[in-house]
Design a protein that fits this description.
The chain has helices spanning about 25-60, 65-70, 75-90, 100-120, 130-140, 145-160, 160-170, 180-195, 195-210, 260-275, 310-315, 320-340, 375-385, 400-405, 415-430, 440-445, 465-470, 485-490, 500-510; strands at about 215, 220-225, 230-235, 245-250, 285-290, 300-305, 305-310, 345, 355-360, 360-370, 375. It has about 525 residues and is of the alpha+beta class.
Length: about 525
């Protein structure tokens, strides 16, 4: 699940999994193993097809193909190869549903068994163990599932040799007696019963791994996404049952990234937690807890957001109308104004770090996240002299102020510039500048002149909003709005048409993203009256 899919979760939803099922990340690993197994089977059937159609006629021209490889072998092999490649592609698809892929894996096991039984029994063969025994024993080890489904699929797969003989008998070909068939393929069914054992062991181990994943008072659930500073998991408080998101950074996996040592990255992670926890704006993501595991991994716990980041919002639904853009930007200003007042600079304001949420009774309630690059203003200038060259590119080039790109003593106005870039993206669905490398993108921000949003937007953007966005994008920081408070006031004074009020916002969410809207919406309480 991606961060933009943090929707509709209750306290029980985050770590809970159906009885007997693997935890989500182990489900993902099993899904990928299924893809590898499908690729192996495609290779085996492809090899059989090649040997029997190309190699065998050369080595043994006197032996007709049908004797060693009956004519259904070719279409069956090609069908299995096509199915296997399709299953592999699905397990590698970015929108793959891991639970569904494992269900498909059970059907795939049955199809493989049918292909084996159909080809092997085209000419009756009631001697020795069948390859189906290997299939029903090995498949659950590679792709574990609940024991009930594993047993059902294995029993059906075990019946494919007798089914193949039944088809052969229907063609008028003599087949062994029922007693011989039962005795010969009894091992198929014994293997099917044994297949439950590895399935139950692997599932139990997976559940133990899940139960062991506890950080402080929180139990981890599904991995929701990965960022520059670590992985994010769904979680819940063991006592309060409160849903949360947990960001974890693994000390052992840090290494050297972008010229920064592991120690530097750990300091940044601590700074992110401390900085975010010190802020109290309702438009800043709330931090519940922070700590270090026994293994030395760092983590902090924050509120679980139910909504979409602004990058995803525009990617899915296109540019936003000016009233909605103004509504969202004013909320971002509220969060940044508090941070700037506390001497903190975000330095990575971008659509992916701004979430529009359904928050309580409010729709389109914006939250600013990921203060991982935050800097303290008094220390910023001194620290710049210590940065190595790779450190100069800290931030996201597409939203980077010129002075930040040039390391020219950046201050809080880099966030004002970035908000201008965000406004441009929301209004147009396009970046301020286009470039094919990060370095060229930074050069464009240093030297390029942006075109007004109104010239590339599908909406009728008022000239005053055009001017304000361009003012935020001024190369000279002194020409930008002086601070986030001033910018919020300027946004409030704009005439952009019908305001984006709560009723209008709620209607949009119900129509476009109903899964995020709470199932039960409490009425807004009336204002108290005197007497």
């Amino acid at each position: 699940m991606s961060p933009e899919q943090l929707i509709g979760m209750t306290s029980g939803d985050v770590p809970a999994h159906p009885t007997g099922e693997l935890p989500p990340d182990l489900l993902e690993a099993a899904s990928r193993r299924l893809g590898v197994a499908a690729l192996v089977w495609a290779g085996l059937w492809g090899l059989s097809f090649f040997l029997n159609n190309v190699v065998s006629p050369v080595l043994s021209p006197e032996t007709p193909l049908d004797d060693a490889w009956p004519w259904p072998g070719n279409p069956v092999a090609l069908g299995v190869i096509a199915l296997s490649l399709a299953l592999f592609a699905y397990t590698r698809w970015h929108a793959c549903d891991c639970r569904r892929s494992l269900d498909l894996g059970l059907g795939y096991e049955v199809v493989l068994a049918f292909a084996i039984g159909f080809v092997n029994q085209w000419t009756p063969n009631a001697q020795g163990l069948s390859w189906i025994c290997v299939l029903v024993l090995v498949h659950p080890m590679i792709v574990p599932h609940t024991w009930g489904k594993t047993l059902a699929a294995a029993l059906v797969a075990a019946s494919m040799d007798p089914l193949g003989l039944a088809i052969t008998s229907a063609r008028g070909v003599p087949v062994p007696s029922a007693a011989v068939i039962l005795w010969t393929y009894l091992p198929n069914y014994l293997c099917a019963l044994l297949s439950v054992v590895p399935a139950r062991i692997i599932t139990r181990l997976g559940r133990q791994v899940s139960d062991a994943r506890e950080l402080g008072a929180y139990q981890l659930g599904e991995r929701l996404g990965s960022g520059g500073m670590g992985d994010v998991y769904g979680a819940r408080h063991r006592m309060l049952r409160r849903p949360a998101a947990v960001k974890v950074i693994r000390r052992g996996g840090l290494g050297d990234r972008g010229g920064e040592s592991a120690e530097t990255l750990v300091r940044r992670f601590k700074r992110e937690a401390e900085a975010t926890a010190s802020l109290h704006s309702p438009h800043t993501v709330a931090v519940y807890d922070f700590g270090v595991t026994r293994e030395g991994d760092l983590y902090y716990v924050m509120e679980l957001l139910r909504g979409l980041d602004l990058e995803t919002l525009v990617d899915r639904f296109g540019p936003l109308p000016p009233p909605r853009v103004v509504h969202l930007l004013r909320q971002a200003c509220h969060s940044l104004a508090e941070a700037h007042g506390a001497g903190l600079i975000h330095r990575d304001v971008k659509p992916g770090n701004l979430y529009s949420c359904w928050f309580g009774l409010d729709a389109d309630f914006l939250k600013v996240t990921d203060f991982g690059l935050v800097k303290s203003s008094p220390d910023l200038a001194a620290e710049q002299t210590k940065l190595t060259a790779p450190g100069l590119t800290t931030g996201t080039p597409a939203f980077m102020a010129p002075e930040l790109a040039m390391n020219d003593h950046p201050d809080w106005r880099v966030d004002i510039y970035a908000l201008g870039c965000v406004a441009y993206w929301l209004l147009t669905g396009r970046l301020v500048f286009e470039a094919d490398t990060p370095m060229r993108m930074m050069i464009r921000h240093i030297e390029g002149t942006p075109v007004p949003p109104s010239s590339v937007s599908e909406f009728d953007i008022p000239a005053e909003l055009d001017d304000l966005v361009l003012a935020c994008l001024a190369k000279d920081r002194r020409a930008r709005p002086s601070d986030a408070v001033r910018l919020a006031r300027m946004l409030a004074d704009l005439d952009v048409g019908e305001p984006w009020l709560q009723e209008r916002a709620a209607q949009w969410w119900r129509a476009n993203v109903p899964e995020i809207v709470p199932f039960v919406e409490a009425p807004v309480p009336p204002a108290p009256t005197a007497g």
